[in-house]
Amino acid sequence: MANTRSRAQTTVDPDEVARFAAMAADWWNPRGQMRPLHRLNPVRLGYIRDMACTQFGRDGKALDCLTGLRILDVGCGGGILSEPLARLGASVMGIDPAEENVAAARLHAEKSGIVVDYRATTAEALANAGERFEIVLAMEVVEHVTDVGEFVRRCGEMVKPGGLICAATLNRTLKSFALAIVGAEYILRWLPVGTHRWDKFVTPDELEAELKATGLKVIDETGVVYHPLADEWRRDDDMDVNYMMVAERPR
Fold first, then answer.
1. pLDDT, tens digit, for every residue of 24-40?
2. Residues 6 or more apart in contact with residue 248 via CB below 8 angstroms
3. Which of 16, 67, 148, 224 could join 89 via S-S bond, C-beta 3.0 to 4.6 A?
């Protein structure tokens, strides 16, 4: 298995790229196909900010609390997460294999006056180029790659000693099948049918094992649960469906 992974050129799934590229024009529409991601953004942004400030000794209440930190947003899409991280002072590189998504991200950043280094490339290409970051993000992307272990390994290579990798994904449980696929795609129509495949969901134990295999140590994890009455996502102990995990590379 190790030899197979070392020869892999990319973990990008062309079908997944095409699916999300088709939504490029709708990335920044909070009432469109990306509405669930817009609703999810505050909780994942807050989690990344809090973990980064704890790790690097920053004041989380400061508007520029991420200044001086180089962050990679893998699978950035239209830049929904990259932009607010840049507003907090980080030097952000957002990458996506879909040219359409990168074009949408660049256009929105230009109109907003936000500086983000957007590139149509892959994590593997950046790792091969020797790029290194204080923080690497793989948010809502792990469940869309062809080889989770290889993807995590290559992302992990880019984390500097003392740095962090943060992943957000979906747990492979019967509850996640009922809520994230049947409920979100077929009943509520939050997402286009076929957005997710349950067999590609990753359990926390599986993700932690892959992070450990690349020399990273898991330091925190949290569930993310939707509260319908408030129409918002919140951190929770329940990791049965959505969850986030943070690991560090020892110094």
1. 788 899 888 888 889 99
2. 55, 159, 162, 163, 164, 165, 216, 217, 219
3. 67
